[in-house]
Amino acid sequence: MSEYDDTGPAVPPLRDDCFALPAGVHWMPVEETLALLRARLAPVTGEEEVALDAADGRVLAGPVAARRSNPPAANSAVDGYGFAWHDGMVGPQSLPLAEGRAAAGAPYGRRLERGAALRVLTGAVLPEGMDTVLLEEDVWVEDGRVVFDGLPQRGANTRRAGEDIEIGAPALGAGRLVRPEDIALLAATGTARLTVRRRLRVGVLSTGDELAAPGETTDPARTYDANRPMLLAILARWGYVPVDLGHVPDRRDALRDAFDAARARCDVLLSSGGASAGDEDHVSAILRAEAHLTAWRIAVKPGRPLALAMWRGMPVFGLPGNPVAAFTCTLVFARPALAQLAGGNWSVPAGFTVPAAFEKTKKAGRREFLRARLTGEGHAEVFASEGSGRISGLGWAGGFVELAEPAGTVAPGDPVRFVPYGSFGL
Ligand SMILES: Nc1nc2c(c(=O)[nH]1)N[C@H]1C(S)=C(S)[C@@H](COP(=O)(O)OP(=O)(O)OC[C@H]3O[C@@H](n4cnc5c(N)ncnc54)[C@H](O)[C@@H]3O)O[C@H]1N2
Ligand code: MOO
User: Fold this and answer.
1) 75-159 CATH
2) Cys-Cys with 241: which of 46, 117, 201, 348 at CB 3.0–4.6 Å?
3) pTM of the model
């Protein structure tokens, strides 16, 4: 029988769904996973008081109301001349200029005489008897008179007391992650100290006997630990206390000890590696056996072996070892969950629709996050490889193209959803 004889045993044809997710496993959809995290996780952090200048990046423990209105009194929005408006002012006007002036912080201090104009500067409280201000560029000042033509609207160039926010009105809500612009509002409305949540302590450990510290060895069988420094840096950016729990060997007893140690020092743990189903995937195995593993296989690429479990009361995110998958899972799943544990609000990353600058055929059943960036024309281009170990693509990209679960093809020019890293707080 020749090598090329095709009369041998029949080979089954490839099935059309051969690329579908393996059957017999519940692949938890992304939305279901997020809903589970949102429903099950509650704040675990206590409260503390901080000064306003230390509040950036902190989570408000409760709502904050304005202690004074902004602005606290009606004032001038421009440098110019103020007067009392009345509808009889038709045609060219010539008002006597009163002595003195009103400046920010140095009020006129008395009533402006009826029919007179007064020099006012931006921010000056409007004296009684003044409700309207003309820009100095729009008037003539001559022989002690202010001359202008054309009556502005009543109240022109002035700011009403409380027009921004009234005393007692809500300034910021509980769970708000305080940002520099919030600090401006709190300062303007008289809040000098505020009650925030204590910072969430997030432990990070790496697993895998193959791991070594960067530069530690030249042995090509060893992999430098890239996940731990990456995750610690992400957590610091998010305003948490990153707790470096080191590198744990692939042994159950070592993992158990590490998880116990983490529980003593952290509110929540991110581990990476060993989350899959292989012989050496001890993290998923121990979490399944001892820690109420709730979710494990997520219908997402990259990152499908994400283990969510509770280690004696401490939430554990068993991230996949591949750095791209660990990064993606951290942004997509750990970020909103950590925010909620920290007392903050659940957040949905903002994305926008742009034309694709690539083509792709996508399999059904899972959501995909492609490393992507915008071209000069605002089109989304994707990294040349979808390999989960291609760390260079993370930095090449500026965000993700997020493709929904159904199968589909993307052709250049088709609308796709782009979510910048900034939407994940990076
Ligand atoms: N039979 C199956 N095999 C695999 C599956 C599966 O579902 N069934 N999933 C694949 C996917 S997807 C991923 S992602 C990986 C992740 O699995 P693990 O979490 O078990 O990760 P490891 O096997 O420990 O490591 C994978 C890969 O990443 C490297 N790694 C691990 N930690 C680090 C680190 N801290 N820094 C840098 N690189 C790291 C590790 O050396 C491996 O090369 O499993 C697939 N297999
Ligand atoms: O999570 Mo894995 O390939 O999708 O890296």
Assistant:
1) 2.170.190.11
2) 201
3) 0.88
